[in-house]
Amino acid sequence: MNSFDHEKIKQGVQLLLEGIGEDPRREGLLETPDRVARFYKEIFSGLNKPSHTYLETSFTDDHEELVLVKDISFFSVCEHHLVPFFGQAHVAYIPKEGEVTGLSKLARTVEAVAQKPQLQERMTYTIANNIMSVLQPHGVMVILEAEHLCMAMRGVKKPGAVTVTSAVRGHFAQELAARQEVLELIRHHK
Ligand SMILES: Nc1nc2c(ncn2[C@@H]2O[C@H](COP(=O)(O)OP(=O)(O)OP(=O)(O)O)[C@@H](O)[C@H]2O)c(=O)[nH]1
Ligand SMILES: [Zn+2]
User: Fold this and answer.
1) Are residues 74 and 155 in the same domain?
2) Residue 166 and residue 101 in one domain
3) Of 14, 60, 111, 162, which one's alpha carbon is 20 to 30 angstroms from that of 119?
4) Which Gene3D superfamilies match (predicted)?
5) Is 52 designated active site?
6) Which ligand is nearest to the CA of 154?
7) Is 144 inside any structural domain?
8) Residue having the nearest C-alpha atom to atom 5 of ligand 1
9) What is the C-alpha to C-alpha distance for residues 56 and 150, in angstroms, rounded to an integer?
10) Which ligand is nearest to the CA of 158?
């Protein structure tokens, strides 16, 4: 994988500005290529982070039932238009043999997966697969609800349309009641 190249982004932004008919030398735009490069470093920082490593901080405990962290807000960037999509992630799992991870590590995993050019579907199953492979729990259920600015501010222009994706593994894939419990907790216990 190529590493982050600040100068290349600056040159690219300068070309973009020229391409849209702007003058990159006018005062208000002089620092813009550098600002955008710093901004991209921040929002694409997930490219340099293996997202599953956060989950390796785990503890043992007797709890072998549902853990749900819901309403984890995230911002990502659609790989087709390079504009944001953003919303909430809900992450549930059932620990096996007492192996639980830090709650914040679930949110950090969401963040690391979000911070690269993405598809909402790929984000969803990557989070689920990361949890399955590191913690090997009884089951995982990940739901993402997001608004895509490429559908809101351009193109089909449907602001407010929400895309919901889910990935279910293990117990949640086999048991309707387990999926229903998670959906009920997400919807009704704000
Ligand atoms: N499945 C999926 N599609 C996405 C996601 N983000 C953006 N898209 C879609 O990617 C598609 C790209 O379609 P294209 O026809 O190649 O691009 P376009 O001409 O800009 O399409 P319009 O958005 O319909 O104007 C669009 O339908 C977007 O809505 C995503 O996370 N998942
Ligand atoms: Zn898009």
Assistant:
1) yes
2) yes
3) 14
4) 1.10.286.10, 3.30.1130.10
5) no
6) 1
7) yes
8) 119
9) 35
10) 1
